[in-house]
Amino acid sequence: MSARSVGKKNKVSLKSKVEPYLYLAPFAIGVLLFTLYPIVNVVLMSFKENYNFINQSYSGWGLGNYLYVLKDAYFIQAYKNTFMYVFVVIPISTCLSVVIATLLNQKIKFSGMFQTAYFLPMVTSTIAIGFAWRFMFNHKTGIINYLLSFFGVEAINWLQIPKYNFPALCIYGVWAILPFTIILLLSGLQNIDPMYYTAAKVDGAGPIKSFFRITLPLLAPTIFLVLCVNTISTFKVYNELFPLFQGPGIASNLFTVVYYIYYQFRIKTPSKYGYAAAAAVILFLTIFVFTMIQRFVEKLTKD
Amino acid sequence: MSKALKEITLGRVFIYLFLIAGAVIMIFPFYWMITGAFKSYVEIGQYPPLWWPTTFNFDNFVIAFEMAPFLTYFRNSVVAMVGSVSLCAFTTILASFAFSKLNFPGKHVIFGLLLGLMMIPFEMIIITNFRTIIDIKIYNTIFALIIPFTSSIFYTYILKGFFDSIPDSLYQAARVDGCSNWKYLWRVMVPIARPSLVTIILLNAIASWNSFMWPMLAVVERDLRTLPFGLYAFVSEGGAETQLMMAASTIIVVPMIILFLFARKQIVNGVARGGLKG
Question: Is A272 exposed, middle or buried (0-12, 13-18, 19+ CB in 10 A)?
Fold first, then answer.
């Protein structure tokens, strides 16, 4: 073997060693700078006492931020509101979606048109369509109160009376999350072997019976997955507050966890980054618990 | 026989009625927004509400465009979307290829860690990212809306999954023929993966177009606002009248409606795949 060919071989192997990192580099820079570093930093920040954002000074390490946040009436309210929102929106949207997805999965005409109608809200701006809902929720001239009047319901002041803010948010929330939920359930339904239904038909089972005996049990893993994914996403409710109430409810009555983070580091003056960081870590831990439950049950059903 | 037939048709009728009612509810806010954009100041305040504007003209749009620089907002949205989506597609293609076909020490550990990072809520990291864009001096520039979004673990995960499904024998054959990795990636992998790529680009474009929280933090200048933030400011700062609010909202929503009508299948498939695995 000549010296030249050895040199060339070394060059090739060096190249093949370095090459993967060159392919990874552009991606890695973004991930390191805008995902990994911020996570580490926000956790550290949450333990820094009297953190000053401008000169990045702090007086020491401790649990001060957490103690403050956990006692803060706004945070307690935010956590309660967020949980309430999840517990209202998730069951209603999931039940509706199971029914709609099941019907959409039948051999129906115009299924493309139906899908377009049901999925459209998913691609449109929360803010823009939220303003349409605000218009619909209007106390005096809104279409919702007008339609309700046919059922003898007196005009509800959805947006200006604090106790009606939450139902308004939930109605909008359910409507907005339906498309995503239906899509996931529909794709779960399409994975069910049609053999089961043929067999059920031969055995004389009606559509209702086969829904409860076949569809629901076989769809259960997908439903569970949807519950987890949606719990995590609804737990981050935030954008919806802006078009409806231009803030956390009409009288600061509808704080949510994410809004609280935003409030601590952008609205409050001077900004409290430490409190925002502590709240963010608490948000993460909550979501982490849901994710772990999801992974655990997924493993159970797979084995 | 005829009784069974009757039952079947009755069930069918019920299915259609239910689906139509649901579809009407889902579509209604769009209908109400777009018709509202054409109503006059008097019409929009009428009770009972008008189902249909009496005249169709673009006055509200003209007034909204005069009151706030929506054309500039529109341009900013397009620039931020094209910039972040194309850069992200580029980094995603390269990284997915490395994770799928190249070998390097710690590959599986690194990929596992990345999947773990995927559950970090964006809301958790914005506090630091806000600080970072100030430090790297892109705060209050259009780059603040692009640079933080050049890498996506989620899309890399999806595309890597697709790359994995392309048989390695193809890769080996090309390598034996003296085809470089770079050439192989762009000449073979990318064309094969086009449907997947289109899907992640569409999902990313929709997310970018509709993003609200980050633009609100990252830019202060009026001429740098994107559409959702500009619309929100138009209403909250200017106290815009309802029919103008509807006209401005329509401007934001219509491009995405058109996109959805053309690419419904890709978008829906992408959402189903991403949601079920992620």
Answer: buried
Q: Does residue B267 belong to the interface with chain A, where contact is any CB pair within 8 Å? A: yes
Q: Answer whether A175 sits within 8 Å of B209, measured CB to CB.
A: no
Q: Which domain holds residue A9?
A: 3-46
- Using the Cβ of B275 and the Cβ atoms of chain A, whether some distance falls under 8 Å is answered with yes
Q: Is the Cβ pair A26, B242 closer than 8 Å?
A: no
Let me know if residue A56 belongs to a domain. Answer: no
Q: Report if residue A133 sits inside a domain.
A: yes
**Residue contacts between A and B (CB atoms, under 8 Å):** 266
Task: State whether A132 and A273 are in the same domain.
Answer: yes
In terms of domains, do A31 and A172 share one? no
Would you state the pLDDT for residue B193?
93
Shared-domain flag, residues A178 and A86: yes
**Residue A36 shares a structural domain with residue A110:** no
My answer on whether A23 and A116 are in the same domain is: no
Q: Whole-prediction pTM value? A: 0.91
Contacts of residue A123, defined as CB under 8 A and 6 or more positions apart, other chains included, come to B206, B210, B256, B257, B259, B260, B267
| Choice between B119 and B102, residue whose per-residue pLDDT is larger | B102
Across residues A96-109, what is the average pLDDT?
92
- pLDDT at res. A107: 85
What was the pLDDT predicted at B276? 57
Looking at beta carbons, which residues of chain B come within 8 Å of A29?
150-151
Taking Cα atoms as reference points, which of B214, B207, B170 lies closest to residue B192? Answer: B170
